[in-house]
Amino acid sequence: MNITYFKDFSVTPFLNNLSDHDAQILTINIPIQIHPDNPKLVRRVAKHAILDFIYNLSNETWDSVFTTTDVNLMFNSFLCTYLRIFYSSFPLIRVKKRKYTNNWITLGIKTSCKRKRELFLLTRNNNDAALKQYYKTYSKTLVKVI
Length: 146
What we know:
Blueprint: E1 9-14, E2 23-28, E3 40-43, H1 47-59, H2 63-66, H3 71-89, E4 92-95, H4 107-124, H5 129-145
Antiparallel strand pairs: 1-2, 3-4
C-alpha cells in the first residue's frame, strides 16, 4: 500500500484554551481489508512463559547497557536485550478464528437487539419515566421473541 499520498483526509483545529498555540488533528481514512480466513498471530502468555521471562531477565548481565555513557545507546541496548528475551519467552503463534454460526438469530432479532441497545443508552442518562417503561416493555418483548 502506498502511504505517501492520501486523497481522503481532513485537518481540523483542536482548541485547547491553554495557550495561543492550538493543535491540529489529522484524520486519514484508509480502507481496511479484512480477511477473516487468515490466521491471526498472537502471543500466548502462560504462567510458565512468565516464569521463563523473569528467569531470563534476572540472568541477563546487562553489560552492554552499562558499558556506554551515551543515554540513547544505553536505551537502545536495553530495549534490544529486553525485546530479545520477550520475543523468545512469548513467541508468536497462529490462531484461526472460530466461526460461530447462530442460524437461529434472524435479521429481525439482530435489529431488535440493536434498537434495545439504543434505548438503553437513551434511558441511562434520561429521567423520563415513560421512556424507561418503554425500554422495560421492549426488553421483555425481545426476551420472549428470543
